[in-house]
Write a structure and sequence with these properties.
Layout lengths: L1 H7 L23 E15 L9 E3 L3 E11 L4 E12 L9 E14 L4 E15 L4 E18 L4 E10 L3 E13 L2 E15 L10 E16 L36 E8 L12 H13 L4 E6 L7 H21 L7 E5 L12 H7 L1 E7 L1
Parallel strand pairs: 13-14
Antiparallel strand pairs: 1-2, 1-3, 1-11, 3-4, 4-5, 5-6, 6-7, 7-8, 8-9, 9-10, 10-11, 12-15, 13-15
Length: 372
């Protein structure tokens, strides 16, 4: 009965993670992400710290609904609401007592770079403990901070990890894999573990402070929509204007300036979702710098491109970052900005089919043209 009373007094608080499917580390202004998933949760507590009798009290696992909604404020900041069910089944170890509650949180997220994002927020946990003849609800409020990391294993497969700390002695980690079905639709699978304050020493005669853990397999699906994809308006034909015809005059003799043209020089290539050139492209960058410094009267057009994966808005921004980084390298080596003309085409100027890995690799590039 002592164990039963202590379980009834649980004041657990969990820190939830920043997304339920493959976690995003970058956002677009105006973009929404909807997350739906399930978490196969069990809860356990260490009785050694409760009554000195030893052993772990572990409930039986149960599938819980998870859901979330994220909105991109700009390319660095997003806001997010998440929901977790916290239901588990009673077991013989817990005298038939299970949990029946939920966690709701609001986070602000910040993109550090394409591989990492940080978040902070507020988490309200309602833990309801029930058996055939007992029901009691307890609510905890948790302040939390965390970090998200992910890296591509292939063009479509990511590995991700999340870690966080919060008040109520709370820690969390989650790790798993995410698979991109389309540029806007992901699925993921992983394992999630949360450890947080259970009771303070002396509460219901507890022998010491104690924590409780929630853990289990988690899977989910994410869908993104609504990003800004503004396109430049088509130029409108100018209204006809009447102008009187000038009287014929003798044409002055004008010295014609030599005609200058663009000549292809190099294509610098990039990895998937990368804005820094591949290490194998260093010789091309150095050749470009050498030619530019040897011809100070020539200008050089840098044109950024991507493959077809991702939204138009994201690919336009990615192609711009690629060009900016190539230009920044050239300037760091002594090429003046006045020699550089920057242009960005996103996915709209492929040189190969986007239906193959090699074709997509050929399209991830910055073309360099010399005007002379």
């Amino acid at each position: 009965m002592k164990k039963r009373a202590l379980l009834l007094a649980v004041a657990a608080a969990t820190v939830t993670s920043a997304a339920f499917a493959t976690p995003q580390t970058q956002w677009q202004e105006g973009q929404w992400q909807v997350d739906l998933g399930a978490w196969n949760t069990e809860a356990s507590v260490n009785y050694d710290k409760l009554d000195g009798e030893g052993g772990d009290g572990t409930t039986n696992d149960k599938w819980n609904f998870t859901g979330g909604l994220t909105y991109g404020l700009n390319d660095k900041w997003a806001v997010q609401y998440n929901y977790y069910g916290l239901k588990t089944k009673g077991s013989s170890e817990t005298d038939g007592l299970g949990t029946d509650g939920n966690a709701q949180e609001v986070n602000a997220l910040y993109s550090i770079n394409k591989n990492f994002a940080a978040y902070a927020g507020y988490n309200r946990i309602k833990n309801k403990f029930t058996s055939d003849d007992i029901s009691e609800s307890l609510t905890n409020n948790v302040a939390q901070i965390g970090i998200i990391g992910k890296a591509p294993l292939t063009d479509k497969l990511d590995v991700y990890g999340k870690a966080a700390i919060g008040t109520k002695n709370t820690t969390i980690w989650e790790a798993g894999l995410g698979y991109s079905i389309t540029p806007d639709l992901d699925v993921s699978a992983g394992y999630r573990y949360v450890n947080t304050k259970f009771v303070d020493k002396g509460y219901y005669d507890a022998a010491d402070d104690a924590n409780i853990s929630y853990k289990g397999f988690i899977a989910g699906l994410s869908y993104r929509f609504g990003a800004d994809r503004d396109e430049a308006p088509a130029p409108q034909p100018a209204a006809p204007v009447y102008r009187p015809q000038p009287q014929p005059q003798a044409a002055p003799v004008v010295q014609q300036a030599p005609v200058r043209n663009d000549y292809y020089l190099e294509s610098v290539h990039f990895g998937f979702d990368e804005d820094q050139p591949l290490s194998t492209e260093q010789s091309k960058l150095d050749h470009f710098v050498q030619v530019a410094k040897a011809n100070p009267t020539h200008t050089f057009k840098l044109v950024g491109n991507t493959d077809s994966r991702g939204t138009d808005g994201y690919n336009n921004a990615l192609s711009q970052r690629r060009v900016d980084n190539v230009a920044a390298y050239a300037q760091s080596q002594g090429v003046p900005a006045s020699q550089l003309v920057l242009n960005y085409k996103g996915e709209n100027d492929p040189v190969a089919s986007n239906d193959s890995d090699q074709g997509r690799a050929d399209n991830r590039r910055v073309d360099i043209w010399e005007n002379k």
